[in-house]
Design goal:
The chain has 474 residues and is of the alpha/beta class. The protein is built from 13 helices and 22 strands. The strands form 5 sheets. Strands 1, 2, 3, 4, 5, 6 and 17 form a 7-stranded mixed beta sheet that branches.
Length: 474
């Protein structure tokens, strides 16, 4: 006889563990099934984000930033160093310790909220039953009134550049190099490629990024992408656009990569190759026969705007459903579904989900780009303000970048805010709040911002929408 719950969550990543904890907080008997194992072979809750994504990559980004500042940027402050070196083993060990802290923290939260945790691969069966295949091969079945599918996503593997975990790696492999590669190739100039490419570039690697698309950061506002590309070029990141890779061969511990661009076909040799061309929903083995749950042509679980699959009591959240593959989007969907199940009003506003790239400088945005406004025939006006004119940024010696505010030309309602610069991953939250409350550019312009702070760039950009910024010429 199977155990019975009010809610079973399949997947313990960002969307899944948020859903499980919130459901338990609301008094629902909850279980979470997850099969992710850490380096020690034991269950490691938190999914890709905590284990090999958001958290470990930020640890590595911070370590590489500290080293780069030590070797390149401290002299201007009157600080001199000699013989600075990076111990990659220690850096990776620090990253692993942080990962262990956070994955263990989710387990502690489960215990505190009385969430039953199962280690194994979960499969939805008919009548809201869930089969759990444990690592030792044993299976058991549990059931619930509601099942939340939160199986996450996996890296896309190219047929001509298969991951071997040594020479050709995915994001997880690029977090575990035992030494700085002399030559690192990156296929894909997206979030993962740029972040991990910049980590190893700052530590001394020669990094070449091959991007098939002709435009850099096509999803971002063109003005912001242009500034970001210029700054990355200054840092020595060699980003080749319109470069379509057709072959990657490992020969004598080197990776020979063939790509074509407007000038013809080329071959370039690397010590390591990171393939970062995106992620796909992970739904293999998730659904048994006769569940009634549908998946689309991209393997994503089909859901409506409330994350309901159309099957009574079955829901889908996070990377395995439509929408941006962002941890914070998964957080909110998981919470919203748990609240909906409990009879409350769950809600996620997809129009105010922020995007962040944690490079140096950082890139962040929310809402519509200028190109989208033009394509949709929305009348708009813009305001810009550079960090070079912000006292705090100058004092920090981090003046690259700008803030751009896009507002409706007639109503002044904020349509989008786009930033590149220091700490914009934090500054974007102000724009999200303003847009969530249907704020106008004038609202931002009339709010008092502390001086001297980086947030003044947001304030002045909002003022610039109506051509009344104080600290800029023209």
């Amino acid at each position: 006889m199977s155990d019975k719950f009010d809610v079973i969550v399949i997947g313990g990543g960002p969307a899944g563990y948020h859903a499980a904890i919130r459901a338990a907080q609301l008094g629902l008997k909850t279980a979470c099934v997850d099969n992710y194992a850490g380096k020690d072979g034991k269950q490691a809750l938190g999914g890709t984000c905590l284990n090999v994504g958001c958290i470990p990559s930020k640890a590595m980004l911070d370590s590489s930033k500290q080293f780069h500042n030590l070797t390149h940027n401290f002299e201007v402050h009157g600080i001199t160093t000699k013989g600075a070196a990076i111990d990659v083993k220690t850096m990776v060990g620090r990253k692993d310790k942080i990962v262990k802290q956070f994955t263990g923290g989710v387990g502690t939260l489960f215990k505190a909220n009385k969430v039953a945790s199962y280690f194994g691969k979960g499969k939805l069966l008919k009548d809201n039953r869930v089969e759990i295949a444990a690592p030792d091969g044993k299976t058991e079945t549990i059931e619930a009134a509601n099942v939340i599918l939160a199986s996450g996503s996996v890296p896309i593997e190219l047929p001509f550049a298969k991951f071997d975990g040594k020479a050709i790696v995915d994001n997880a492999g690029a977090l575990d190099f035992d030494a700085v590669p002399k030559r690192l190739g990156v296929i894909g100039a997206g979030v993962i490629g740029l972040e991990l490419g910049s980590v190893w570039k700052r530590l001394g690697a020669e990094v070449v990024v091959l991007e098939a698309l002709p435009d850099f950061l096509a999803a971002a506002d063109a003005d912001i992408a242009k500034i970001a590309a210029r700054e990355f070029k200054k840092q020595g990141l060699d980003i080749k656009l319109g470069a379509k890779v057709s072959k990657a061969e490992v020969k004598k511990n080197e990776v020979h990569v063939t790509y074509a661009d407007k000038d013809g076909e080329h071959t370039i040799v690397f010590d390591k190759l990171l393939v970062a061309v995106g992620r796909r929903a992970y739904s293999e083995g998730l659904l048994g026969e006769g569940t009634g749950v549908k998946v689309d042509e991209r393997g994503r679980v089909v859901v409506d705007e409330h994350c309901w699959t159309g099957v009574p009591g079955v829901w889908g959240v996070g990377d395995c459903v439509r929408g941006p593959m962002l941890a914070h989007k998964g957080f909110e969907e998981g919470i919203a579904v748990a609240e909906t199940i409990a009879g409350k009003a769950g809600h996620v506003n997809v129009d105010t989900i922020p995007w962040v790239i944690y490079t140096e400088p950082e890139v962040a945005w929310v809402g519509k780009t200028e190109a989208q406004c033009k394509a949709e025939n929305i009348p708009y006006k813009t305001g810009h303000f550079p960090f070079a004119a912000v006292g705090r940024a100058v004092a920090m010696n981090e003046t690259a970048g700008t803030v751009k505010v896009i507002a409706h030309a007639e109503t002044d309602r904020i349509l989008g805010v786009h930033m590149v610069g220091p700490n914009v991953s934090e500054l974007i939250a102000e724009a999200v709040v303003a847009m969530e409350f249907k704020g106008s550019a004038e609202d931002l312009a009339r709010i008092v911002h502390a001086h001297p702070t980086l947030s003044e760039a947001v304030h002045e950009a909002a003022m610039a929408v109506d051509k009344r910024a104080i600290h800029r010429f023209g």
